[in-house]
Fold:
Amino acid sequence: MTKEITKPHSFGIWGNTDKPKFWELLEPILKWAEQKKIIPFITTRIKNQLPNSFKYKVQLIESADDFQNIDFLLTLGGDGTMLSAARAVEYRKTPILGIHLGELGFLAKITTDVMFERLDMVADANYEIQKRMVLKGQIMNSENPSTFYALNDFVIDRGKSHRLITLRLKSNDRYVADYKADGLIIGTPTGSTAYALSAGGPIIMPKLKAMVVVPISPHTLNLRPIVLPDDQTLEITFPIDGNDGLAFAIDGQVNQYLDQNSKIIIKKAPYDINMIDYKDSNYFDNLQQKMGWGRRGN
Structure:
Protein backbone atom coordinates (compact mmCIF):
# COMPACT_ATOMS: atom_id res chain seq x y z
CA MET A 1 0.00 0.00 0.00
CA THR A 2 1.42 3.38 -1.04
CA LYS A 3 1.78 5.97 1.69
CA GLU A 4 -0.91 8.65 1.38
CA ILE A 5 0.29 11.96 -0.05
CA THR A 6 -0.35 14.70 2.49
CA LYS A 7 1.31 17.91 3.59
CA PRO A 8 4.27 16.86 5.77
CA HIS A 9 4.51 17.81 9.43
CA SER A 10 8.01 16.40 9.88
CA PHE A 11 11.00 15.22 7.86
CA GLY A 12 14.38 13.64 8.43
CA ILE A 13 17.82 14.61 7.14
CA TRP A 14 20.27 11.88 6.12
CA GLY A 15 23.53 13.10 4.65
CA ASN A 16 27.08 12.52 3.61
CA THR A 17 28.75 14.54 6.34
CA ASP A 18 32.14 14.20 4.65
CA LYS A 19 31.02 16.63 1.94
CA PRO A 20 31.53 20.33 2.81
CA LYS A 21 28.43 21.11 0.71
CA PHE A 22 26.31 19.19 3.20
CA TRP A 23 27.26 21.60 5.98
CA GLU A 24 26.69 24.61 3.70
CA LEU A 25 23.12 23.46 3.05
CA LEU A 26 22.13 22.22 6.49
CA GLU A 27 21.33 25.61 8.03
CA PRO A 28 19.34 26.91 5.00
CA ILE A 29 17.30 23.68 5.03
CA LEU A 30 16.57 24.05 8.75
CA LYS A 31 15.60 27.68 8.19
CA TRP A 32 13.23 26.53 5.42
CA ALA A 33 11.71 23.97 7.81
CA GLU A 34 11.21 26.68 10.43
CA GLN A 35 9.41 28.89 7.92
CA LYS A 36 7.21 26.01 6.76
CA LYS A 37 6.56 24.85 10.34
CA ILE A 38 7.83 21.36 9.53
CA ILE A 39 9.68 19.58 12.34
CA PRO A 40 13.21 18.48 11.30
CA PHE A 41 14.85 15.27 12.50
CA ILE A 42 18.58 14.61 12.11
CA THR A 43 20.66 11.46 12.58
CA THR A 44 22.94 11.00 15.58
CA ARG A 45 25.89 11.05 13.15
CA ILE A 46 24.96 14.59 12.11
CA LYS A 47 24.28 15.67 15.70
CA ASN A 48 27.70 14.51 16.87
CA GLN A 49 29.38 16.78 14.31
CA LEU A 50 27.34 19.93 14.88
CA PRO A 51 29.30 23.09 15.73
CA ASN A 52 28.89 24.68 19.16
CA SER A 53 27.17 27.64 17.52
CA PHE A 54 24.29 25.47 16.25
CA LYS A 55 21.00 27.14 17.25
CA TYR A 56 18.18 25.21 15.58
CA LYS A 57 15.79 22.97 17.45
CA VAL A 58 15.77 19.45 15.99
CA GLN A 59 14.58 15.99 16.89
CA LEU A 60 16.81 12.90 16.67
CA ILE A 61 16.64 9.76 14.56
CA GLU A 62 18.15 7.35 17.06
CA SER A 63 16.89 4.04 15.68
CA ALA A 64 15.40 2.69 12.46
CA ASP A 65 11.91 2.73 13.97
CA ASP A 66 12.16 6.51 14.26
CA PHE A 67 11.67 6.68 10.48
CA GLN A 68 8.02 5.93 11.22
CA ASN A 69 7.81 9.30 13.02
CA ILE A 70 8.67 11.35 9.93
CA ASP A 71 6.72 12.10 6.76
CA PHE A 72 9.70 11.99 4.39
CA LEU A 73 13.47 11.58 4.44
CA LEU A 74 15.72 14.09 2.70
CA THR A 75 19.11 12.69 1.65
CA LEU A 76 22.02 15.00 0.89
CA GLY A 77 24.89 13.41 -1.00
CA GLY A 78 24.89 11.12 -4.00
CA ASP A 79 23.43 7.82 -5.05
CA GLY A 80 25.41 6.01 -2.36
CA THR A 81 23.78 8.20 0.29
CA MET A 82 20.34 7.29 -1.06
CA LEU A 83 21.20 3.59 -1.12
CA SER A 84 22.33 3.64 2.51
CA ALA A 85 19.17 5.53 3.47
CA ALA A 86 17.01 2.98 1.65
CA ARG A 87 18.69 0.13 3.56
CA ALA A 88 17.99 1.96 6.83
CA VAL A 89 14.33 2.69 6.02
CA GLU A 90 13.66 -0.84 4.70
CA TYR A 91 9.96 -1.80 4.96
CA ARG A 92 8.85 1.31 6.85
CA LYS A 93 7.62 3.07 3.66
CA THR A 94 9.04 6.50 4.54
CA PRO A 95 9.35 8.36 1.19
CA ILE A 96 12.87 9.41 0.22
CA LEU A 97 13.88 12.54 -1.69
CA GLY A 98 17.50 12.72 -2.85
CA ILE A 99 19.49 15.93 -3.27
CA HIS A 100 22.54 15.48 -5.47
CA LEU A 101 25.81 16.95 -4.15
CA GLY A 102 28.37 14.97 -6.17
CA GLU A 103 29.53 14.53 -9.74
CA LEU A 104 26.98 11.98 -10.94
CA GLY A 105 23.63 11.38 -9.32
CA PHE A 106 21.02 9.27 -11.04
CA LEU A 107 18.94 8.31 -8.02
CA ALA A 108 19.58 11.61 -6.24
CA LYS A 109 18.43 13.61 -9.23
CA ILE A 110 17.43 16.91 -7.57
CA THR A 111 20.21 19.48 -7.91
CA THR A 112 20.90 22.16 -5.31
CA ASP A 113 19.82 25.00 -7.62
CA VAL A 114 16.20 23.76 -7.64
CA MET A 115 16.23 22.13 -4.20
CA PHE A 116 13.99 24.62 -2.41
CA GLU A 117 11.57 24.80 -5.32
CA ARG A 118 11.16 21.02 -5.07
CA LEU A 119 10.97 21.09 -1.28
CA ASP A 120 8.20 23.70 -1.51
CA MET A 121 6.28 21.31 -3.75
CA VAL A 122 6.62 18.56 -1.15
CA ALA A 123 5.48 20.97 1.57
CA ASP A 124 2.36 21.67 -0.53
CA ALA A 125 1.75 17.92 -1.13
CA ASN A 126 2.45 18.50 -4.82
CA TYR A 127 4.41 15.34 -5.47
CA GLU A 128 4.05 11.67 -6.36
CA ILE A 129 5.31 8.42 -4.88
CA GLN A 130 7.26 6.07 -7.13
CA LYS A 131 7.65 2.56 -5.78
CA ARG A 132 11.07 0.98 -6.35
CA MET A 133 11.53 -2.78 -6.30
CA VAL A 134 13.96 -4.27 -3.77
CA LEU A 135 15.80 -7.61 -3.93
CA LYS A 136 16.19 -10.02 -1.05
CA GLY A 137 19.39 -12.09 -1.01
CA GLN A 138 20.23 -15.00 1.28
CA ILE A 139 23.64 -16.61 1.62
CA MET A 140 23.35 -20.23 2.64
CA ASN A 141 26.65 -21.69 3.80
CA SER A 142 28.21 -23.63 6.68
CA GLU A 143 27.37 -20.80 9.07
CA ASN A 144 23.93 -19.40 9.83
CA PRO A 145 22.15 -18.03 6.76
CA SER A 146 22.60 -14.30 6.19
CA THR A 147 19.90 -12.10 4.66
CA PHE A 148 20.45 -8.82 2.82
CA TYR A 149 18.33 -6.36 0.86
CA ALA A 150 19.42 -4.34 -2.19
CA LEU A 151 17.78 -1.45 -4.02
CA ASN A 152 20.35 -1.55 -6.84
CA ASP A 153 22.00 -4.93 -7.11
CA PHE A 154 23.78 -7.93 -5.72
CA VAL A 155 27.19 -8.68 -7.23
CA ILE A 156 29.11 -11.93 -6.96
CA ASP A 157 32.69 -11.61 -8.19
CA ARG A 158 36.16 -13.16 -7.97
CA GLY A 159 36.96 -11.48 -4.68
CA LYS A 160 40.40 -12.69 -3.58
CA SER A 161 40.77 -14.99 -6.57
CA HIS A 162 42.68 -14.06 -9.76
CA ARG A 163 40.96 -16.65 -11.95
CA LEU A 164 37.69 -16.82 -13.81
CA ILE A 165 34.95 -18.36 -11.71
CA THR A 166 32.05 -20.61 -12.64
CA LEU A 167 28.60 -19.69 -11.39
CA ARG A 168 25.58 -21.93 -11.95
CA LEU A 169 22.27 -20.12 -12.23
CA LYS A 170 18.82 -21.63 -11.71
CA SER A 171 15.52 -19.78 -11.95
CA ASN A 172 12.53 -21.30 -10.12
CA ASP A 173 14.54 -24.54 -9.87
CA ARG A 174 15.14 -24.62 -13.64
CA TYR A 175 18.71 -24.64 -14.92
CA VAL A 176 19.59 -21.45 -16.83
CA ALA A 177 23.33 -21.60 -17.51
CA ASP A 178 26.84 -22.02 -16.16
CA TYR A 179 28.60 -18.66 -16.34
CA LYS A 180 32.39 -18.73 -16.66
CA ALA A 181 33.18 -15.10 -15.96
CA ASP A 182 34.59 -12.56 -13.53
CA GLY A 183 31.24 -12.55 -11.79
CA LEU A 184 27.51 -11.98 -12.02
CA ILE A 185 25.27 -8.96 -11.36
CA ILE A 186 21.66 -9.43 -10.32
CA GLY A 187 19.94 -6.06 -10.41
CA THR A 188 16.61 -4.31 -10.07
CA PRO A 189 15.23 -1.83 -12.62
CA THR A 190 16.70 0.89 -10.38
CA GLY A 191 20.09 -0.86 -10.53
CA SER A 192 19.92 -1.33 -14.31
CA THR A 193 21.54 2.11 -14.75
CA ALA A 194 24.33 1.32 -12.26
CA TYR A 195 27.00 -1.41 -12.48
CA ALA A 196 24.77 -3.58 -14.68
CA LEU A 197 24.73 -0.88 -17.37
CA SER A 198 28.52 -0.54 -17.42
CA ALA A 199 28.75 -4.33 -17.81
CA GLY A 200 26.55 -4.24 -20.91
CA GLY A 201 23.10 -4.71 -19.39
CA PRO A 202 19.86 -3.11 -20.61
CA ILE A 203 18.14 -0.03 -19.20
CA ILE A 204 14.88 -1.00 -17.46
CA MET A 205 12.37 1.67 -16.48
CA PRO A 206 11.83 1.79 -12.70
CA LYS A 207 8.09 1.04 -12.85
CA LEU A 208 8.71 -2.41 -14.30
CA LYS A 209 8.84 -5.36 -11.92
CA ALA A 210 11.76 -7.38 -13.20
CA MET A 211 15.27 -8.60 -12.45
CA VAL A 212 18.27 -8.35 -14.75
CA VAL A 213 21.13 -10.85 -14.72
CA VAL A 214 24.36 -9.56 -16.26
CA PRO A 215 27.61 -11.55 -16.50
CA ILE A 216 30.82 -9.64 -15.81
CA SER A 217 33.39 -10.20 -18.59
CA PRO A 218 32.07 -13.65 -19.60
CA HIS A 219 34.56 -15.96 -21.31
CA THR A 220 32.16 -16.56 -24.20
CA LEU A 221 30.14 -14.64 -26.79
CA ASN A 222 26.90 -16.55 -26.30
CA LEU A 223 25.95 -15.62 -22.73
CA ARG A 224 24.21 -12.26 -22.78
CA PRO A 225 22.28 -10.29 -20.14
CA ILE A 226 18.80 -11.63 -19.44
CA VAL A 227 15.69 -9.96 -17.97
CA LEU A 228 13.44 -12.10 -15.77
CA PRO A 229 10.02 -11.40 -14.23
CA ASP A 230 9.84 -10.61 -10.53
CA ASP A 231 8.13 -13.90 -9.65
CA GLN A 232 11.37 -15.83 -10.12
CA THR A 233 13.58 -17.19 -7.34
CA LEU A 234 17.20 -17.30 -8.44
CA GLU A 235 19.74 -19.77 -7.09
CA ILE A 236 23.49 -19.33 -7.64
CA THR A 237 25.97 -22.06 -6.76
CA PHE A 238 29.61 -22.77 -7.58
CA PRO A 239 30.04 -26.20 -9.25
CA ILE A 240 33.82 -26.02 -9.80
CA ASP A 241 36.28 -26.61 -6.94
CA GLY A 242 38.71 -23.85 -5.97
CA ASN A 243 36.18 -21.00 -5.81
CA ASP A 244 36.79 -20.04 -2.17
CA GLY A 245 37.27 -16.36 -1.36
CA LEU A 246 34.59 -15.05 -3.71
CA ALA A 247 32.90 -11.77 -2.78
CA PHE A 248 29.24 -10.89 -2.45
CA ALA A 249 28.43 -7.16 -2.56
CA ILE A 250 25.16 -5.47 -1.64
CA ASP A 251 24.55 -2.18 -3.47
CA GLY A 252 28.32 -1.81 -3.76
CA GLN A 253 28.56 -0.89 -0.08
CA VAL A 254 28.36 -4.05 2.04
CA ASN A 255 30.59 -7.03 1.33
CA GLN A 256 30.61 -10.66 2.41
CA TYR A 257 33.01 -13.46 1.45
CA LEU A 258 31.75 -16.81 0.24
CA ASP A 259 33.08 -20.32 0.53
CA GLN A 260 32.99 -23.11 -2.07
CA ASN A 261 29.78 -24.59 -0.67
CA SER A 262 27.82 -21.34 -0.50
CA LYS A 263 24.42 -21.12 -2.14
CA ILE A 264 22.82 -17.76 -2.86
CA ILE A 265 19.06 -17.32 -3.13
CA ILE A 266 17.75 -14.06 -4.64
CA LYS A 267 14.15 -12.99 -5.11
CA LYS A 268 11.89 -9.97 -4.90
CA ALA A 269 11.72 -8.52 -1.40
CA PRO A 270 8.33 -8.32 0.34
CA TYR A 271 8.46 -4.50 0.33
CA ASP A 272 9.28 -1.60 -2.00
CA ILE A 273 11.13 1.65 -1.36
CA ASN A 274 9.03 4.79 -1.81
CA MET A 275 10.75 7.56 -3.77
CA ILE A 276 9.40 11.09 -4.05
CA ASP A 277 8.87 12.11 -7.65
CA TYR A 278 7.05 14.89 -9.53
CA LYS A 279 4.50 15.02 -12.33
CA ASP A 280 6.86 17.02 -14.54
CA SER A 281 9.78 14.56 -14.11
CA ASN A 282 10.94 12.83 -17.28
CA TYR A 283 12.98 9.64 -16.94
CA PHE A 284 14.44 10.09 -20.41
CA ASP A 285 15.54 13.65 -19.66
CA ASN A 286 17.40 12.25 -16.67
CA LEU A 287 19.10 9.67 -18.91
CA GLN A 288 20.11 12.39 -21.34
CA GLN A 289 21.41 14.81 -18.72
CA LYS A 290 23.22 12.31 -16.49
CA MET A 291 24.37 9.66 -18.97
CA GLY A 292 24.38 11.32 -22.37
CA TRP A 293 21.55 9.06 -23.62
CA GLY A 294 20.96 9.50 -27.34
CA ARG A 295 23.88 11.86 -27.92
CA ARG A 296 26.17 11.20 -30.83
CA GLY A 297 29.90 11.21 -30.22
CA ASN A 298 32.15 13.87 -31.74
Observations:
- The radius of gyration is 21 Å.
- Residues 242 and 286 are 43 Å apart (CA to CA).
- The helical segments are 20-36, 44-47, 79-89, 115-123, 195-198, 283-291.
- The chain has six helices and 18 strands.
